[in-house]
Amino acid sequence: MQDKPTGAQIRQEFINFFEEHGHTFVPSSPLVPGGDSTLLFTNAGMVQFKDVFLGTDQRPYSRAVNSQKCLRVSGKHNDLDQVGRDNTHHTFFEMLGNWSFGDYYKKEAITWAWQLLTEVWHLPKDRIWATYFKDELNEIPEDKEAAGIWLQQPGFDPDHLLPFGRKDNFWEMAETGPCGPDSEIHFDRGPEYCNLSDDPNHVCGVNGDCERFLEIWNNVFIQYNRLSENVLIPLEKKHVDTGMGFERLVSILQDVPSNYKTDLFIPLIQRVQALTGHNDAEREANLTPYRVIADHARATTFLIADGVVPGNIGRNYVCRMLVRRAARFGLKLDLKAPFLAKVAQVVIEEYGDFYPEIKRNAKTILDNLTREEIQFKKTIDAGLDHLNELLEELKQKGEKIMDGEKAFDLYATHGLPLEITRDIAQEQELDVDTMGFQQAMEVHRVASGAGREFGEMGGEDVEIYANLVDSLKAKGKLDAEGVKYAPYQAIMEPSEVLAIVKEGKPVESAQVGDSVAILLPKTWFYVEAGGQVSDTGKVVGSDGSAWTIRVTDMQKPAAGVIVHVGEVEEGCPAVGDMAIAQVDENRRVQIMRNHTATHLLHAALHEVLGKHARQAGSLVAPDRLRFDFNHPQAMTQEEILAVEAHVNQAILANYALNITQKPLQEAIDEGAMALFGEKYDAVVRTITIGDEAPLSYELCGGTHVDETGDIGLFLITYEGSIASGVRRIEAVTGWHAYQYARGRLNTLDHVDHFLGTSPQELLPKVKNLSGSLTAAQKEIEKLRSQAVSSDFKDKLDNAEVVEGIAVLKIILQNANMESLREMADRFRQKYTTGVALLASVQDEKPILIATVTEDLTKQGLHAGNLVKQVAAVVGGGGGGRPTLAQAGGRDASKLAESLYQVNVYIQNNLK
Ligand SMILES: [Zn+2]
Ligand SMILES: [Zn+2]
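A: This is the predicted complex of the input protein with zinc ion.
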C-alpha cells in the first residue's frame, strides 16, 4: 500500500510535468468566476481563460497548467441526486488542465499526455484507449492529424484508436464562438469492473455504459470560430484546452474502485465514522449518507473560503442548500448537529497546503457551517413533519408528483430546500414538480441557483473591435499591446483620433447628437474595475477643429481596446483629428477619496471585528462608497462608531500612500489582501498605507489620494444586511461628508427652534413629550372603548326576532376584533338562544364576527358559514368554529347592506 502515490503527490506531479515543459503554473481561480455575473460557479478549468479564447483579453504567458476548483450542482453535467449514490459524482471537484494559447498544438499535447500517463505514472499501455473526431454528417473535416499523432506514440495499440462523432468528440463553448475537435483518453479498468455483465446484450466498450472504461482526460483543440449554425471559420491562433477529472485519476492511480475510496475522501469518511461510532460493516451499510456528507463538507468549505456564505438567493442559496442537505443526511446516521464543522476541519487539514485560502479562512468556514446547521435544526422537525403529511396525502390520493408551490412553501416557511424535499419524496418513490417550485420561487423573487452553462458570451462588438485594432496595428498606429492605459497620471498632450464607432460600425466622422465610441492611442480615463466606477469627462478636438464629445462611459470591448463612449456635443469629430482627453477631475478626486477611504474602512473592520470581515463586494463612486463584507451579525452602534473613528484617525495621521508594482506571489506572501472575485496579473500593483507595520496593504489597480489627509472627513451613513452572514456599510467622504453632517445639524437646529430648546436639552424634552403623548393616547383609547361599550349596551337590549329566535346585527364605531369578541361573549351571556353578527371598520376595511348559541348549532346554524355568507358581500372571507367565527372584507361601503344576509342565512338554514 505504501507505494501508491497520494492525491497531493499526483496533483503536484501533473503540475511539475507541465512546468518542466515550459508551462506557467496558474493558481486556481475562485469558485465565483471573476467578472462574469452570468455564470453561477466556476465549473471547468477553462472558465478563467475564457476571455483569452474569446480574444477579449490576453495573458503574459502562452502555456499554462492548473488545478481548478470547480462546483456543479445543476445542469447537464451533473445531477445533485446522483451525488453520494454512486462512485463518481461530486458537487465540488478538481480539474487538472494544461493550456496552449496560440502556442503548441496537437502533436505536443498528445505526446505529453502519453508520456505523463505511461512514463511518469506507469499506466499499462495496453489499457489505454484514445478517441478522435470523425463527423457523422461529413460536414466538418475528420481530425486525421490527431489520429496520426496517436499512431506514432511508442507502444500505443493502433486498435485502441476509435473515431467518434459530434456528441463525444466535438467541443463547443456555446452556440457560437470558439470550438473544435477533441481527443479523449480512456482507461480500461478490466472486466471485473463491468457492472452490467448480467445483461446478455451488453458489450463493454469505450463510451459504453458500464464502469469498465473510464474517460480520464479530454484534449480539446480549439481551431474554429463558429459564426452561425452552418458557418465555421478557422482560427488564426489555435489553442489547446485540456481537462482531467482529478478524483477519477486518483482512483485509477491508487487502484480503488470508487473516488470515495481514494485518500481524497477516506480521511473525511473516517471522521464521520468516528462521530457516528459505527463499525466498518455499519459504515458500508450506510454508504450514501457518508458520501453525501464528505462531498458536501468539501463543497461548503471551499465555497465559504471564496466568500459564498449560506443565504437565500443565488450562490448563497446553493451553499445553504448543501449545508442543510448534509445535515439532513446526518440525521440518517443519528449524528448530533452541529457536526459538519468537524468534518470541514479535516478538509482544511487535507487540502489547506495546496489551497491556502481554506486555512486562512478556517474560522469563518467553521463558524458559518455551525451557525447554519443550528439555524436549520430549529425548523427541520416541523418541516419534516409537514412534508410527511403532504406526502401521505399524496399517496392517499394515489398521486405521484408533489405540487411545486407546496414544496416552495416548505422552503419559505420551514427552510427545507427543494433538493431535500425531493430527496425525501424520492425515497418514498414520489417526486416533486421542480418547474412549479422554480416558478413559485421566481414569483418570490428568489433566484433558483441554476446558472447558464458558460455564462454570457462576449458581445458582438468583439469582432468589430478586434479587426479595427488589428488594422491599426498593421498601420503602425497602435503597438502590440493595443491602446495604452495610463490612468494614474494626467495626459495633457493631444493625440490622434484613431477610430470612431457609431451604431456598431466604424465611421470617418460624426455629427452633433451622435452616440459614438472614440478610440485614442492612449487614455488616462479610468475603466471600471475593482468596484471603482469609470471616469467621465470630455474628449475635445485640438489644433483648431472645435468639437466636443461628452464621455459618459468607458468600455474594454476586446483585448487591447479601450474606448470612450458618449455623445457629440458640438462640432464634427473625424478620424485623424488631434484631440485631448479631459477627465472630469473634480469627480475623479471625489472617487479617489472614496477609494482610499474604502481601504482604510476594510482595515478598520479587521481591527474592530476581526480578520473574518473580508470584502465581499465594493462600489467606489464619486458621491459615496459601499462596502460589503462577511460578518455573522449586525454591528453594534459601538462597533460602527469605533470603525468610523479608526478611519478618521488614519485620515488625521495624514499617512502618505506607498504604491508599488511587484510579483503577485511576493505580495501575497507579504500578506497583501487579495480580493475575492478579482482577476490578477502576474505583476500586481500594491497600495500600502501607514508606516512600519502598515495599516492597510492591498492589491489594487484603482486611483488613490496621495496622503490620507486628502480624504477630509469620513462618515458611515448606513449599516445593514444583504444576505445571511454578509453586511453592508455605506459611507461618505470629503465635501459629501461635510454636506451630510451639515444637513443633520440643520435638522437639529430646526427641531431645537421648533421646541424652543437647546441641543443639550433636546433629548430629555423629546422623551418627556413622547411620554405625555403615550399617556394621552391611552386615555383616548379608554374613553373610546367606554363609548363603544355603552353604545353596545343599548343595542343589546333591542335584539330583533327572526324565525322565533333573538338576532342581533349591528355595526359599531371604532371597535377592534378584540372588543367585538368581548361583545359576542356578552351577547351569549344575555341570550341563551340567539344569533349575533357584529361588525366594525378598521383601517377602512370591514371586520366581522358572528356568534351562534350552542343549542342553535344543533338546528343547522354554523357561525363560520354565516360569517362567510355575510363577508362575501363586502368582498372578503373568513371562518371559524360553529359557535364563533370571524371575517374580514375589502369594501366598507357595502357593510350595512351585507347585514341582511343574516336573515337570509337563518331562514335558509334553521331547521
Ligand atoms: Zn461492461
Ligand atoms: Zn482598492
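The longest helix spans residues 759-796. The radius of gyration is 35 Å.
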